Amino acid sequence: MTGLSKLTGLSAALALAAGALTFSATAGAQEHSFKMATGWGGGPLMEIGAQAFADRVEQLSDGRIEIEVFPGGTLGPALKVSETVQQGVADMGHTWVGYDWGIDPTAVLFGGFAGSFDTERMLHWLYRDGGADLQAEWRDEKFNLISMPLFIRTSEVFLHARKPVRSLEDINGLKLRTAGAWLEISRGMGAAPVTMPGGDVYPALERGTIDATEWGTLWENVSPGFHRVTKYVIIPGVHQPTAPFELVINKDVWNSLSEADQQIIRDAAFMTTMNSWLTIGQEDAKAIQFFREQGNEIIELDPEVQYAAREAGLAWAEEKAADNPWFARVLESQKAFADLWSDANKYRNVKVRGQ
Q1: Whether residue 185 is found in the same domain as residue 175
Q2: How far apart are CA 101 and CA 111, in angstroms?
C-alpha cells in the first residue's frame, strides 16, 4: 500500500468513526418543531435572515429541529415580534431590536442609530467586546426573553424620495417613514416623520402620503420596488450607519433545549449574521448601478447634513443616558470600544487618490 493509499484508508476509517459517534450522539436526541414570527413579508431579511437561519438550524441538527418561519403580521403585529414571542404565540422571532425603543430607548444602541459606528466595528463590539452579552442580559431583565444577534446590515440608504434631498433646508417639513430613534432625532431637525411596517411603505409612497422612506441598504431596497415610485436615492445612511437584527426566543422554549441544541442555535445565528453582512456588502456594490439604470438620480447628502445628523444622534444619546441606567451602561461600553478603535483608520486604511 502506498503512502497516499494509507492516508486515504486512514481518512475513511476516521470518517466512519466520526459518523458512528455522530449517530450515537444524536440517535436519542429530542426533536423539536418551532414557530418563528418575523417582521418581514419577504426580501433579504427573510431569505438570508430568518429563513436562512431556520435552514441552518435544521442542517446542524440533522433535521431534529424544525423552524417554520411566518411572514410579518401572521402571528402578531410586524413591529411587535418581541411581544408575540414573550406571550408564547410564537416560540421565537426575528426582529429589529430598535422597534422596542418606545419601551426602553436602550434598544437603539443595539439596533444602530445616527450616533453608531459602522458595521465592521459593530460586529467586533458585539462578538469580541461583550456587546452581545450586554444585549442578552438587557433583554432578559427588561423583556424576559433570550436574545442574540441574527442578521446585520451595512449602512442603509438615507432616503428613497419623491423629491431631491441634499441640505438641512430640504429636510425641513419632509414627510418620511422611519423607525427607532430617528423618529425623534429627525423631528428635531425639522422633518415630519411617521412609522409603519415595511409592507405599507410602497403604497404610501405611491399615493404621496409620504415624501420619502428609509428602509434598508441599496440591495435590500431593490425587491420592495421603491425605484418605481420615487426618483431620488439619497446616500449615505447617516441615520443608520449599521443595523444589527435580533433573534428572540421564549425562555420556556429555550429551557426545553439541551445545552448542545442551544449551541446549535447560537452557531446558526452567528453563521447567518456573518453571511448576511458579506452578501449585502457585495450586492450593494452592484445595486447602485441598478438604480442608475432605472432612471433614479443618486444624491449624496451635503456634508453639513451628515455632520448634523451624527451630532444630533450623539446629543440624543447623552440625554437618554442621563436618566436611564441601562442606556448609560451600554453607551459607556460603546464609547470605550470607540476609544479602543480610535487609531484604526491610521493603521488599517491606505489613502487612495480620488477617494
Answers
A1: yes
A2: 9
Contact between residue 178 and residue 101 where contact means Cβ atoms under 8 Å apart: no
Verify that 91 and 172 share a domain, yes or no: no
* Parent domain of 214: 159-241+286-341
Angle between helices 325-340 and 131-143 (to 10 degrees): 170
Give the E-state strand segments of 172-316 in sequence order: 175-177, 192-194, 212-213, 232-235, 243-250, 297-300
Residues 94 and 137 in one domain: yes
Question: What predicted TM-score, i.e. pTM, was given to this entire model?
Answer: 0.87
DSSP for 159-197 reads EEESS---SHHHHTT-EEE--TTHHHHHHHTT-EEE---
Residue 23 pLDDT more than 90? Answer: no
Pairing of strands 145-153, 243-250: antiparallel
Residues 127 and 274 both lie in one domain:
yes
Does 194 map to a domain? yes
CATH number at residue 89: 3.40.190.170
Sheet strands (E) in 215-311: 232-235, 243-250, 297-300
- pLDDT at position 96 is 96
Same domain, 208 and 318: yes
Any residues with CB less than 8 A from the CB of 268 and at least 6 apart, and which? Answer: 53, 56, 57, 60
Is 47 among the domain residues?
yes
Whether 197 and 304 share a structural domain:
yes
User: What is the mean predicted confidence (pLDDT) over 296-322?
Assistant: 96
The pLDDT tens digits for 69-88 are 999 999 999 999 999 999 99
> In angstroms, rounded to a whole number, what is the distance separating the alpha carbons of residues 126 and 111?
11
Count structural domains, the chain.
2
> What does the pLDDT look like over 176-211, one tens digit per residue?
999 888 999 999 999 999 998 888 999 999 999 999
Contact 219, 286 (CB under 8 A): yes
